[in-house]
Design goal:
Layout: E1 18-24, H1 28-37, E2 45-49, H2 87-93, H3 97-103, H4 110-123, E3 127-129, E4 131-138, E5 143-149, E6 155-165, E7 169-171, E8 185-187, H5 191-200, E9 203-207, H6 211-223, E10 230-234, H7 255-262, H8 266-275, H9 277-280, H10 285-298, E11 307-310, E12 313-320, E13 325-331, E14 336-342, E15 344-347, E16 351-353, E17 392-394, H11 399-402, H12 412-424, E18 467-470, E19 475-480
Parallel strand pairs: 1-2, 1-6, 2-3, 6-17, 8-15, 9-10, 9-15, 10-11
Antiparallel strand pairs: 4-5, 5-6, 7-16, 12-13, 13-14, 18-19
Helix pairs in contact: 1-12, 6-10
Length: 490
């Protein structure tokens, strides 16, 4: 944490500080932006976060858990491998390169990733913690960002040409549990703070079958060994399914697919995202295997496994009882209702974008789609009223416009570089032309390749159409070329 604000590029008047870019929130995505911007001169940036220090999902930093992306998906490497803020640079700074080398790890522990991000955040002078942003407004020429020092209570303001929102997501609490959070019901985001209490309870129910739900279930399964301890795992999903991790399947997390998805019609995008749940909401195969192994070990020599795993279950109601919670449930395929009585409930029900009050002054300026969601262009810039000349960018709030790669750490550096290029009006970071082998669709203006009539036969090469492909566009260009020739295409 720095004791003073970074020096401004210039001041509009003696009482105002002007930055080229102010980032609000310092999670991994805005931290990636800060790290990449640190090497762009003379860009002046400031990043504000109300927390006293960097912290990444502290309630889920379980021993033995790892990232689901390779270590190259750090804050900077996929854009700038020479950056002093890479994960390898962090290992070198902590004399851990040789241990990491011999460990032969592709996926690093979550606790180490958190420590790596803390190291970067503490070193970057543009990052200021303990700063609670209270208001973001457009004053006619610049953004005015007002914030409060959480330590002293003092209020400050700065001006910015551009603002980047990296305020993260917040835990989703299903409607039946809205009034029950407390002693008997908690979100998985707070799991570690309540683990001892959960381990001691006679009956615990976990809701949700994403990676967090699986890790919580596995951790409780290992800790709850008494004969009277029951553990239940329920999910609306049709199965406790593995994450899609095939090499071509992972190409959905490339800039190529993001561009393709962004160009689809809104109704098509809205149908696609829920259908792709196994790309970003399922469970790693290692975690599934560990759960099965634990259950198998429990059953050796006639051992009793006091665990229930049931998919396709929706909790339709919940009410508090004297000792716990009563859940009203319905099994989808059987269309049958049933009741679960439990002492504790852990909601592994995911996260949703935040809509904090600090953005209220901008509400009338933002353009929305038919569902009331922000319109966001391919550069992650929010569509605003025409008179607003400064860019308002967002990170991890564009699932509806950019697809399943939105929350993925592997696209964090690329998105940050895209935003920087847009802010600077030039390619301060060179981004790859093509990132996937898959051609996801046709580009605008393209037509379906001509088809030969089934009644006609010819072996004349001049009569066989050759469709030129522009590499990286993920599309066939709408013309033909002579055999053996083609044309080329972030």
């Amino acid at each position: 944490m720095t004791d003073r604000l970074p020096a401004p590029r210039r001041a509009a008047d003696p009482g105002a500080v002007v930055y080229d870019l102010v980032g609000i929130g310092i999670g991994p995505f805005n931290l990636a932006l800060a790290a990449l911007a640190d090497r762009v001169e003379p860009l002046r940036t400031l990043f504000l976060d109300r927390a006293p220090e960097f912290s990444w999902h502290p309630g889920l930093l379980l021993d033995g858990t790892t990232l689901q992306v390779p270590f190259l998906a750090d804050l900077v490497t996929l854009v700038d491998p020479t950056s002093p803020w890479s994960f390898l640079a962090y290992l070198r700074a902590h004399d851990r390169l040789f241990p990491f080398y011999f460990a032969e790890r592709l996926h690093v522990p979550r606790r180490e990733y958190d420590h790596y991000c803390r190291w970067v955040a503490q070193a970057l002078p543009a990052c200021r913690f303990g700063s609670d942003v209270e208001s973001v407004a457009w004053d006619g020429a610049l953004y005015r960002v007002e914030f409060r020092d959480t330590g002293t209570g003092e209020r400050h303001h700065v001006h910015a040409r551009h603002v980047v929102l990296g305020i993260g997501t917040e835990p989703v609490v299903p409607a039946p549990f809205a009034r029950l959070l407390g002693e008997h019901v908690l979100h998985a985001a707070d799991y570690l703070d309540h683990r001892d209490d959960l381990a001691a309870a006679d009956d615990v129910t976990v809701l949700g079958s994403g990676q967090s739900g699986a890790e919580v279930f596995l951790d409780l399964l290992r800790r709850r060994t008494g004969p009277s301890r029951r553990l239940t795992w329920l999910t609306r999903s049709p199965a406790f399914a593995p994450m899609e991790y095939s090499k071509l399947g992972l190409e959905h997390f490339t800039p190529d697919y993001t561009r393709y998805f962004h160009g689809l019609a809104e109704p098509v995008r809205d149908r696609l995202v829920p259908a792709q749940w196994q790309l970003y909401k399922a469970i790693s195969t290692d975690t599934i295997a560990a759960i099965h192994d634990e259950l198998y070990e429990r059953g050796i020599a006639g051992g009793r496994v006091r665990a229930t795993l049931m998919p396709d279950v929706t909790v339709t109601a919940a009410r508090g009882t004297r000792d716990g919670v009563e859940l009203g449930c319905r099994h989808g395929e059987q269309d049958r209702a049933f009741t679960v009585l439990t002492d504790r409930v852990v909601l592994a029900t995911g996260y949703a974008p935040r809509h904090p009050a600090m953005l209220d002054p901008l509400e009338e300026l933002v353009a929305c789609d038919e569902s009331g969601r922000w319109l966001i262009d391919l550069d992650h810039r929010v569509a605003l009223a025409e008179h607003v000349t400064g860019g308002l960018y967002t990170q991890n709030a564009e699932l509806h416009t950019h697809g399943v790669g939105t929350p993925d750490l592997g696209l964090g550096a690329h998105r940050a570089a895209t935003i920087l290029n847009s802010v600077c009006g030039s390619a301060v970071y060179r981004l790859p032309i093509r990132t996937a082998f898959t051609t996801f669709g046709l580009a605008a203006g393209d037509t379906e390749p001509p088809r030969r009539s089934p009644r006609r036969t010819t072996t004349d090469p001049a009569e066989v159409p050759h469709v030129a492909v522009e590499p990286g566009s993920g599309a066939h260009r709408g013309r033909t070329a002579a055999p053996g020739r083609s044309t080329r295409r972030a």
